[in-house]
Amino acid sequence: MTPNRRRPSYTLLEVMLVMAIMVMVSALSFPSLDSMYGYYKLNAAVDSVRAAWALARAHASTNDLPYRFSVVQGQGNYRLAPDSGDYWSGSNTPIPEDPDNPPAVIEDALPRGVRFSMGQSGPSTAGNSDDENTSTSGQVDSGSWSTVAVFMPDGTAREDVAITFQVKGATTTTIYLRALTGTVTVKATEEANR
Q: Could you give the 3-state DSSP secondary structure of residue 30?
């Protein structure tokens, strides 16, 4: 007969200790992952607005008519369309005069949790929940749009613009539009939103 040998295994105490360490490590890494996610959402928001501005300048010069970029203050919705009452009255978008080269009409929203604020220091809405105050495209009342910039056919804008982007866990970022040249600069502030 062979002696009865015990098979090596882990005790319940060892398994619980390893699980406790794994929970502590994940709890310590969550804040850094959360802030990193906010950073990527903020960069995506800045890039989408810069792309919309470039599109507005291009269509303004191509179609030879001014384009308006508007936002909903304190939210993440924006709209780009020709600077004509037909496109901003709240009725259906009018039929373009040239069907081969229709004007651009874009209505979109920033990533969830990212908010617009006008100027360098506007009212902070970064403490709002990620889903709060952001309407999906097509559900914004026509009277709630605030005109931010109007791009002229010669490549300029009517006036200088500063838009601040805020999101929980990331540094507040402001983009500036220089009216005379149409150049866009991005500047991050020191303080992060909590």
A: helix
- Residue 4 is assigned to a structural domain of this protein: no
Q: Domain of 159: which CATH number?
A: 3.55.40.10
Quote the domain boundaries for residue 164. Answer: 12-192
Residue 22: count other Cβ atoms within 10 Å of its Cβ.
10
Distance (Å, whole) CA 115 – CA 49: 12
Residue with tokens 């229709």: 102
Distance in Å from the first CA to the final CA of the chain: 69
Residue 93 to residue 75: CA distance in whole angstroms: 23
100 vs 172, residue with greater confidence: 172
Q: State pLDDT tens for residues 76-104.
A: 899 999 988 778 876 555 555 667 777 88
Q: What one-letter code names the amino acid at 81? A: A
C-alpha to C-alpha distance for 116 and 135, rounded to whole angstroms:
13
**Structural domain count, the chain:** 1
- Can you give the pTM of this predicted structure? 0.70
